């Protein structure tokens, strides 16, 4: 795997909460490759110890206890620690408010106490709910349809208030459908709810068929269209966001490139800007894996919009970010290699 050069203007000491999870572990790996000093804080409730990249210091603990570990030697926090199962958030909303919102309040208190004034937050497109138009911009109305999406939107509001009141420089990155893998870091969700890993489970014989929920949508092939972004592209955006947040409190000669103003909270969508249908994903996975991947037609799921595609123009304009791994076959091939390698490891 070729790794793009990411030489930092200034080495930063970073706390990565939730850095043993899927996205957090990939970002932590990119930070280390870029020369940053990384500490991962994760309670392993949904993350995996083996996902923490070599070179990172690991602390097993909750984000609510960040004050025990965060001190003035840190330059920034990248915050991924959150529960993210939409269905579970509906049946147990208190768990999501207590952890996602309450945990972030504790983290912001710890950052303020330690004098850490740069934050990158893992937000989500679920804050928009079911938008009326696509591509979705940051100006779209936020109307989340689940406690998970509502908790992430609440955190965005918390961060905005903290930035205004205390000079925090922060970037919230609202992801669409993250997929693919990066080295030893990939999706290990249990239960799994994302389309690409579910399709690959069928290819591996771990699942009999993939369910297609509705084939009568107003799309070219009748199935839902979603915006898939490679997790490594996502990580690149986090490094650019980190650079911009750090630059807010550094003189211009020390921090060229994207920069925030002190007290600014920037919100950016992240996506490829191109959608792929459920059927396109399944057909591409068949070609990549060489397996037939049977499918079952099922009724539409309530609240599933026909098309969800992002506009990432703000990330391009403010951070200089451009996705470079937008090919669906490449995204699935990376995920397939990770899935096979993980299965072989479990069997050995």
Order of helices and strands: EHEEEHHEHEEHEEHEEHEEHH
Radius of gyration: 19 Å
Strand arrangement, major sheet: 3-2-1-4-5-6-10
Helix content: 25-40%
Distance between the termini: 24 Å
Largest sheet: 7 strands, parallel
Q: What would you call the structural class?
A: alpha/beta
Report the average pLDDT across residues: 92
What fraction of the residues are assigned to beta strands by DSSP?
15-25%
Shape: globular
What is the tally of beta strands? Answer: 13
Runs in which pLDDT lies below 50 for 5 or more consecutive residues are: 1-8
What does this structure look like?
This protein is an alpha/beta fold. It has 9 helices and 13 strands. The strands form 3 sheets. A 7-stranded parallel sheet has the order 3-2-1-4-5-6-10, with helices on both faces. Strands 7, 9, 11 and 13 form a 4-stranded mixed sheet that branches. Strand 5, helix 4 (147-166) and strand 6 form a beta-alpha-beta unit. Helix 5 (195-203) runs parallel beside helix 7. The longest helix has 22 residues, at 93-114.
Key terms for this structure?
348 residues; alpha/beta; seven-stranded parallel beta sheet; disordered N terminus; 18% strand
Fold blueprint:
Elements: E1 13-17, H1 22-33, E2 37-42, E3 57-60, E4 76-79, H2 86-91, H3 93-114, E5 118-124, H4 147-166, E6 169-175, E7 177-179, H5 195-203, E8 210-213, E9 225-230, H6 231-247, E10 265-270, E11 275-277, H7 278-289, E12 295-298, E13 307-308, H8 313-319, H9 328-347
Parallel strand pairs: 1-2, 1-4, 2-3, 4-5, 5-6, 6-10, 7-9, 8-12, 9-13
Antiparallel strand pairs: 9-11
Helix pairs in contact: 1-6, 3-4, 5-7, 5-9, 7-9
